[in-house]
Amino acid sequence: MYTRINQRNLTSLQRSRFVRAVLEIKRRGAYEKYVSLHSKYFAADGESGLRVAHMAPTFFPWHRQFLLTFERELRTVDPGVTIPYWDWTTDSSASSSLWDDDFMGGNGRTSDGQVMTGPFAYRYGAWPITYGVTEERYLTRNMGRPDRPIRLPTKAELDDALTMAVYDTSPWNSAPSTKGFRNKIEGWTVSDTQGGYLHNRVHQWVGGHMIGASSPNDPVFWLHHAFIDLIWVRWQRLHPKSSYLPSKPLASKDPQHGRVISTEDTMPPFGVRPSAVFDHRKYYTYEEN
User: Fold this and answer.
1) Core-most of 8, 34, 57, 175, by most CB within 10 Å?
2) Per-residue pLDDT reduced to its tens digit, 191-240
3) Would the pLDDT of 288 be above 70?
């Protein structure tokens, strides 16, 4: 078992080791499989077939297993590396040390969104984008979305979401009628003016490649989702009598039958049940400060 820590508490050496491990996976040609896998299982409400990575109850367990798989590969490069988490309720500006030149690099330039600083800048040659929905070979960001400004979620908004005692509800998707904690955190349906949506707003705030199915092209994806995973941990602590839903396969007459995974179904492509990853302590702990 190992420990994931807040990115703001990383030493300079820890930052460097994480970056080097990520770049080595990219150099080996193995990084793109994570981008393509996330894209493949990014099915929306309106699409037919199984929903697993997003807009479904498996949002939390699927991404937990996804991060574990990536982290295990990182640790084949450097056994001392873990995925740090980005608490965007605290480090909520483009001037955060997260975006320093020795770590994630900064914002994209105004003309085309190209990230020009840091180890993942295209001009340094180690981070070409080879799998994505656009043709740009360079990493892009558009922090804060200046044309339609948004802000990162606040601690008050997160605390409010954590009070929700029910994990998920029918129709188990991103519709406003799905009132559970999972849909509140995942956050697809509330407007910019109303606020309230959390995970998805962070993707929108970073902008560029962080928007859409190929978002792992931006390495900050892993830090964002490590915090999402920690949020699930906190919810489990607050609501020990609440559990993942649906607990059993949906009835054949249910409109979401065959589209939603229950507790003991297996999540593709991992072949792992949601219940197998309910307890993160089998794998890692979090240092919370």
Assistant:
1) 57
2) 554 555 899 999 999 999 999 899 999 999 999 999 999 999 999 999 99
3) yes
Q: Which residues are within 8 A (CB) of 126 and not within 5 positions of it... i.e. 6 or more apart?
A: 23, 26, 27, 119, 120
Render pLDDT for 235-246 as a digit per residue (tens, 0 to 9): 999 999 999 999
Strand partners, 135: none
Strand partners, 140: 114
> Distance between CA 36 and CA 40 in Å, rounded?
6
The CATH number that domain 2-287 falls under is 1.10.1280.10
Distance CA 160, CA 200 (A): 17
- The continuous run of DSSP H or E covering 284 comes out as strand 284-287
* Domain positions in the chain: 2-287
Contact call for residues 263 and 276 (beta carbons, < 8 A) = no
